[in-house]
Amino acid sequence: MAPRIQSRRVSSTLLPYLGPSLSTSIPSLPSLPSVFSTFSRSFSATAPSQSKLRREMFEWLDGPGSELKHHKPNRTNYVSQYRKMIGKEYRDLKQYPFPENPTFISQSILSLPLQNEIYKRVVEEKQTVREVSVTFGVDMRRIAAVVRLVELEKRQRSQGKPLALPYARAIHEMVPTTGIARNPDQQKMHESINDLPMHPLTGAQMFYPVPESRSFTRVDAGRVFSGAPAQEHKIAEKWSSPHHVAERVPKRPHLIELVGKGDNARQVLQPADARIPHPQLIALERDLAKYPDEPLLVEQRHQDRLRDQAEAEQKQREAAQARRERKITSVSPQESRFDYRIKEVAFTTQTTGRDGRAPWAPGRRYGVPSDDRKRGMRKVPTRVEA
Amino acid sequence: MRNRASNSLSRGKIRQSWSKYNLFNLHRYRVPFNHNRSFFQQKWTAKATARAYHGEQVRESQWKRMFSHRIRSVIPMNPLHLAADDGSRASAGRGSGLEGDAKQPQITPYTQMAFAPLERRLDVAIFRAMFASSARQARQFVIHGAVTVNGQKMRHPSYLLNPGDLFQVDPERVMFATGAPKNKYERRESRQLKQKDAAEETVNPEAEEKVGKVEKADAKESSRDNLQALVVQAKSILSRGKNQLPAKRKQELRGFQKAVRRVLSRSDRSTILTDSLEAQFSELTLLLKTKQAEPKDSKAEKPVPRPSEVEENEAVPGEVEEEPFASDKLSEAFQQAAQGEEVDSSGLTKHETFALKRALAQMHDNPLDSTKPYATPWQPREYMSAFAFIPRYLEVNQNICAAVYLRHPVARPGLAEVPPPLATRSAPRPTAGT
Amino acid sequence: MVLRIRLARFGNKHVPFYNIVVAQARSARGAKPLEVIGTYNPLPKRPTNLYDENVNVRPFKEIALDRSRAKYWLGVGAQPSDPVWKLMSMAGLVEQKPATWNKA
């Protein structure tokens, strides 16, 4: 028999569905015993100490804690709000899930319409990830993840796999969310998109004397931190501005200067202008300051830069892909169920070491014990290929 | 590994768990008074507290091996400032910078980030993505094979996620972990149902051949039976929960009983529409759309509220009077719609039509099904909201119970992404503006 | 003495992994060979099922081979064993053996 919306299935669900707030749970479910009945005997005057705590707990859960029992749609509901804190308003406390930890706040997640909008713009309207990232203030990695997840969701829906829709609805009511504003100018930024990761080299404090007359910029600071010699005067005059570096480096990262020799060679630390995810925004700000009366020109230059950047990135990706494919040839024999991927390797003194059994050599090694049964040796895989 | 996860009240440790015991412990926890205690004592308590929350399910030797000196942090940069200044101003003058009265930068809470390597573990990430109600349960899901990483089954809870890894948990398990449990009546009901099914299968295996003929009559009969059973159920809820039920809810229940009786009295005449659930559903929504289009012209000024806005109505007392919830008409219309009859939505206000449509959609997503291991229709479990947060280093899609581990957790000025339940006192509380 | 290009088994129980080695024909399987020229993993890997384009992709086996060394050893008269012959024919280093010839 084909499934029907049956009365049995329907009517009792009517109760939660038609309430004022639609996904709050039914209060009519049998709840905890309101007063914990301690195991008491008439002849014993003292209650066991353990039950005192339990009694306190249930008193609290029935009293102030009962607010926490069911979620309140579209606002957070954390313990901090119900603790007496002097001088703190509800506004301050609603973000803190842990009352004793003021450095952790519950940050907002992307609302479902915003996720779908991001997917639409990237996949259907073919906007670049960079553009969408600036429009909504969402990190580029997050945009890539959203596109992956929404695509997977569409696939699972089309395959008829089970989904957790009521669960998703409930979570989006409990956790703060960032939605789409009706007016695009009022769109709330989800997160800061220009995060500069702190480089380990900058952790150390350094003393570096500089003449007062000299202009010491971020480029110079990066060179000092990475121990590179000071630039020659002519080159420095031409290239020491961080803005130049910011325009040059993201397109041609292979041109970054190296310090040290052989295995110790490291890239010179670049200024923040080149290391943030959206360097083109700096150039835009500079243009805005330079041509305050020509918005069209500014926009044109910005679009040109975006296009150049996108082309450069695309070229880099293709080159990397070609490099990978050059090493691997795939053979699919007719009579076999499998493909064979043949990878070109080299067994030379460099790759296998002088004695032919260097740990990084390709293939399993001779003359060394297999350590995989030893204590503390981890057999947990370190990565799963996507 | 000994399970120390039981939430004892006497010890009062805070765990990665959503239980109410844990909630009470979290509520009453205070940073210990350390003035008259020796350094060893302070260290002991500090470690015990941290260990209980972070990686309690991890063996000590493994736990010790995980930490790293490298603590990641980021500094949000403003392109406007970068464009205005090339950095020379900070080193100008006598080396202390020209801007003498610059704002004191906020402290980056590095100490909170000591436990960041543990957040890479698969079981902890599942708990953080709110797919399990405790880290222990997340661990069980992994071991029992309900978790995939990048589409491949992963059975190691200690797998360390790499940036870009996509992990997915079986939605049924997630619904079980986060949903309200069945009460004893529902448990008994599903048990009886299961026994009945088993008995029927053993008694008449040849009955299936006859089913085709009797089907139509049967369907009507069973729906009648079900309705009657529901009336009984509503009655029992009414009688059982005399003290618990709010008055409005009681009214609603009575209205519901009436509606059911009305339906019962005319169900002989009614036609059950189509065979498939999906077709029925889409037809109903279509019907509602056309009905709704007609009265729209008369009062078009008022914008149609988004679902979230409607749900906020509870908080706004003015609007509740405007929209009396679950009026008799509305519940009746819902009943009609659910029965697959012609829906008479002309008497409904726009709000009500909207609510009706939404209710239908939710009923479609969240059906009553006694074979599930959780109470149906699905509702979030109690005290869940007190623990509900999703850190920024995960991007979660709740519909398919999948999440992407975007990057390693980082600290930034004033904020840490790793949530230890307590912080050192040196870190100042950030102002509301940041 | 005959030089053979053959497989040497490594890995664990139910998890085989082979080095492609050049060795004296009479030496033991696990003995140190003259040279290792490649590896072969007979356990098929499956592309992830997360994406639509992977639905019809066949599972694959991985071979790593140093072509120049293989050519050299073939040139000086090393004889591939049957399984190695199969692998090398796929890499295009030797002619494919006729099927009847294998069975005989």
TrEMBL record, chain A:
GO terms for biological process: mitochondrial translation. It comes from the Eukaryota. One of its GO terms (cellular component) is mitochondrial small ribosomal subunit. InterPro entries: Ribosomal_mS45. Residues 306-323 have a biased composition (Basic and acidic residues). Residues 375-386 have a biased composition (Basic residues). GO terms for molecular function: structural constituent of ribosome. Pfam families: Bot1p (PF12298). Residues 306-386 are annotated as: Disordered. This is Ribosomal protein S35, mitochondrial. It comes from Penicillium alfredii.
UniProtKB/TrEMBL annotation, chain B:
Its main location: mitochondrion. PROSITE patterns: RIBOSOMAL_S4, S4. GO terms for biological process: ribosomal small subunit biogenesis. It holds the Pfam family S4. Signal peptide: none annotated. Component of the mitochondrial ribosome (mitoribosome), a dedicated translation machinery responsible for the synthesis of mitochondrial genome-encoded proteins, including at least some of the essential transmembrane subunits of the mitochondrial respiratory chain. The mitoribosomes are attached to the mitochondrial inner membrane and translation products are cotranslationally integrated into the membrane. This is Small ribosomal subunit protein uS4m. It comes from Penicillium alfredii.
TrEMBL record, chain C:
The keyword Transit peptide does not apply. GO terms for cellular component: mitochondrial small ribosomal subunit. GO terms for molecular function: structural constituent of ribosome. The keyword Ribosomal protein applies. Keywords: Ribonucleoprotein, Ribosomal protein. NCBIfam families: S16. Belongs to the bacterial ribosomal protein bS16 family. This is Ribosomal protein S16. It comes from Penicillium alfredii.
